[in-house]
Amino acid sequence: MSPLKLSLIAGFLAVLVTIGGHHHVQQGRLQEARRLRAENDRLRMEVNQRRQTPSIKGVDAGAGTGVGALDVAKGKETSRVDHAKMDARVPGTEYRNEGQATPVAAMQSLAWACDRGDAVLMESMIYFDESARPKARDYLAALPERVRAQWTTPEAMAAALLVSDGINRPYPVATIIQHAKTEELRPGRMAVLLPGTGRERIEYQETPAGWKYAITEAMVDNYIRRAAEQAKGTR
Predict the structure, then answer these.
(1) CA dihedral 145, 149, 153, 154 (to 10 degrees)
(2) Cβ within 8 Å of residue 148, ≥6 positions away
(3) d(CA 160, CA 136)
(4) What are the respective helix, strand and coil percentages of the chain, to the nearest 5?
(5) What is the rounded distance in angstroms from the CA atom of residue 215 to the CA atom of residue 113?
(6) In b/e form, how buried is each residue of 21-58, taking b as 16+ CB within 10 angstroms?
(7) Counting Cβ atoms within 10 Å, is residue 70 exposed (0-12), middle (13-18) or buried (19+)?
(8) 60, 106, 164, 174 - which has most CB atoms within 10 Å?
(9) Which residues of 156-165 are buried (b: 16+ CB within 10 A; e: fewer)?
(10) Strand 189-193 and strand 201-207: pairing?
(11) d(Cα 165, Cα 110) in Å, to the nearest integer?
(12) CB neighbours (10 Å) of residue 75?
């Protein structure tokens, strides 16, 4: 076998090993992210409960004063509602699962899936362009068996990568995404625009199941190129 062929084979194997290593690292990050999220939610709930306690005591104290008990109760109840509104980051409000009826709703749901590390939901929201899927399928087929066995389809592989990217580079929160603009690229294809964020332009495809995150041939080519460059840098 020629030195050139040996070099190409060695480079390809390095790419595969690197991908396998990245996948295991990202799985660890997903578990840690879930643990931290659960802890943050617990702390937020404790804070909310402490805020509400003084208001409840205030209702009891007001019952025996010259102020009408009903009026006091109404005032304190309003106070509790206001506290809830002021805390815009209570559990579940940073991201929202809004379905896939529109491109913006699909982005909200996609960000929600990333925040929770939900690769199953993400997989259902992926659409490969006709020219992109064969390349992704061939790339998956060329991975080592121990890595390839973790994903049964190109969509499953892409979902794991998108969730990992969403954890490393979080999407803007729901209140920002809801103001996103859309641009029609062609019938059934829209771009969601979020200028000034790390997600400035993402394409979505309309399908019978709703709008889905579109993966283009250029995106697949770019990922394969970057993976090869990373593997080359580790040799």
Answers:
(1) -60
(2) 140, 141
(3) 13
(4) 65, 10, 25
(5) 17
(6) eebeebeeebeebeeeeeeeeeebeeeeeebeeebeee
(7) exposed
(8) 106
(9) bbbbbbbbbe
(10) antiparallel
(11) 12
(12) 14
Question: Hey, CA dihedral for 182, 119, 226, 154, is it positive or negative?
Answer: negative
Round the average pLDDT of the chain to a whole number and report it. 74
pLDDT in tens, 68-124: 333 333 343 333 334 344 344 444 468 999 999 999 999 999 999 999 999 999 999
Tokens at 81, concatenated: 């509602």
**Tokens, residue 130:** 């006709």
Q: Which residue has the tokens 């409960």?
A: 49
Q: What is the DSSP letter of 208?
A: T
Where are the domains positioned within the chain? 94-234
For 120-139, write each residue's pLDDT tens digit: 999 999 999 999 999 999 99
Judged by average pLDDT, the poorest of 55-59, 116-120, 170-174 is: 55-59
pTM exceeds cut of 0.70: no
Assigned architecture for domain 94-234: Roll (3.10)
Poorest-pLDDT segment among 60-69, 199-208, 225-234: 60-69
List Cα–Cα distances, 198 to 164, 171, 194, 231, in angstroms: 15, 7, 8, 25
Distance (Å, whole) CA 66 – CA 70: 12
